[in-house]
Write a structure and sequence with these properties.
With about 270 residues, this protein is of the alpha+beta class. A hairpin with a 6-residue loop joins strand 7 (about 160) and strand 8 (about 170). The model has no long low-confidence stretch (mean pLDDT about 95). The protein is about 20% helix and about 35% strand. The protein has one domain (about 10-130, about 155-265): Acyl-CoA thioesterase, double hotdog domain (Porin, Beta Barrel). It is built from five helices and twelve strands. The longest helix has 20 residues, at about 185-205. Strands 1-2-4-5-6-3-9-12-11-10-8-7 form a twelve-stranded antiparallel beta sheet. This is Thioesterase superfamily protein. Keywords: Hydrolase. GO terms for molecular function: acyl-CoA hydrolase activity.
Length: about 270
């Protein structure tokens, strides 16, 4: 089931083929997308797929009067993931999420992502349960709108920001299409932004590209675009073989909304 273009999932071309509390299956086209900070091919949009399928599995396990809020997202990328995606440019990445362990005040989903028969990533999404909000934004069911272009920067409504240091930054413009049901930037979009600036910070510090091996995100509060909203990262270590970067997403109000740590290898 393709999603309307005026939703976050439709904007990124996600196609959901199964939704249930026991399993969620969906795909996303990734080949050809590049990091706006470096111009290099990127695996960052896989975080969009992970947030969707893992979040659905956790959400559909909710009880009466409950709602889910994502609290953690972690992706482990297989060596050669970017190459496997590039080798099959017309084949989307398929993700399958299943519940892991029992539901309590939180729930955990385990995800596997692959291109054809090649596994490119494994991931987890942890959610916690809150009372269902009184006001929710209803996503449109009918197809409408259009994509703003094919570049990842256009899909995300981000622009390169000057940092004047060894870090990297992207501003997150206000685009209602990118918002979730509570009116904040979709967690997959913001996680993608964190990977982009984290990878760029390592590239800038070392003068060469690193292959992202892992991305770990903590969601602290709702992230709203516009105003002071941006993603920023700095390299904590950029050695001959490996590197580690720390990234943050700062909301329109100037408060840190997400934290992330990215590890990469040459």
């Amino acid at each position: 089931m393709p999603h309307p273009l005026n939703t976050p999932l439709g904007r990124f071309g996600i196609d959901t083929t199964h939704e249930g509390a026991d399993r969620c299956v969906a795909s996303i086209p990734v080949a050809g997308l590049t990091n706006p900070c470096t111009g290099e091919a990127t695996v960052a949009p896989l975080a969009m797929l992970v947030d969707h399928i893992g979040g659905v599995v956790n959400h559909l396990r909710r009880g009466t009067g409950e709602w889910t809020v994502s609290s953690e997202l972690a992706v482990e990328f297989a060596p050669g993931a970017a190459e496997a995606i590039a080798a099959a440019p017309d084949v989307p990445v398929v993700g399958v999420a299943r519940p892991f362990g029992q539901k309590s005040g939180t729930a955990l989903a385990l995800c596997d992502l692959s291109v054809q028969d090649v596994v490119v990533a494994t991931a987890t999404v942890r959610s916690f349960y809150i009372a269902a909000p009184a006001d929710l934004v209803t996503w449109p069911d009918a197809a409408s709108g259009s994509r703003p272009g094919n570049r990842l920067a256009d899909l995300m409504a981000v622009e390169i920001a000057e940092t004047g240091s060894a870090g990297s930054a992207l501003t997150q413009n206000d685009d209602p299409v990118l918002n979730n049901a509570v009116g904040a930037v979709h967690g997959g979009v913001s996680s993608t932004g964190l990977e982009l600036v984290g990878a760029a910070a390592l590239h800038r510090a070392a003068g060469a590209a690193f292959h992202t091996a892992s991305l770990r995100v903590n969601f602290l509060r709702p992230f709203h675009g516009g105003g002071e909203a941006h993603y920023a990262a700095r390299a904590l270590h950029a050695g001959r073989g490996s590197g580690v970067a720390e990234a943050t997403a700062v909301g329109a109000d100037g408060r840190t909304a997400l934290l992330a740590r990215l590890t990469g290898y040459r």
